[in-house]
From TrEMBL:
It holds the Pfam family DUF1759. The keyword Coiled coil applies. This is Uncharacterized protein. Keywords: Coiled coil. Residues 13-40 form a coiled coil. It comes from the Eukaryota. InterPro entries: DUF1759.
Amino acid sequence: MDNVSEHVDITELEVKLKKFDQLQRKVEELKELLFGLETANPTEEAEFEEDLYKCETRLDDLEVRVKKLINSINVSLSVTAVEKNKYENGTFAQTKIPPIILPTFSGKYEQFSNFKSQFDDLITTNEQLTQSQKLYYLNSCLSNEVKEFASTFDTFSSLYEALESRYDNKRLIVDIHVQHILNFKKIERENPKEIREMIDCIKKNLRALKLLNYEQNNLFNVFLLNIMLKKLDNESRKNSN
């Protein structure tokens, strides 16, 4: 009976998880609508934008928490299945482990820190899992060229440490985030959507830099403002003065 209730809980959680995408799309629509309002009061617009940002951040946090909760239930079920199978059959081979929703890593340096943090929370620190299970889950998270990075002779520890050694490069990651800002395409004509995309790009990469302990200061803000103005079309640049 306990297993049935756990499965029901997972189903309910997975339904809620799908709703996060819908809510996030709604937030994006509101952001575009806000940026297209030419008569909006600047103060109210700034407050509304800040509220939307907080809402977006909150949605991201909730999505991660729901995923962790689903995975926690699935891991518990997998351990129960393993122990039951050992008791009944004396073997591990026939055990079917419930799927766990895990982050994926495709080889982008700037995504490794977030991937590592989520994977550690879900798998690395989970004492209920064996090293073989952890290796299985780690391999399942890797895609693209990173998949080829793994060797058939790897243990969980050796593969994990190899990934850390290659991708946990703070200096390179900082440079990538800065380049994302510098290389954002120039806006040729007044276009609220493209301006919003530029602002989102800058904010996203600034948040990432902040997580790497790089704080903004007045001098940095001057440079950033200059970069933003150079990316704008002539009409938008005039309106910003």
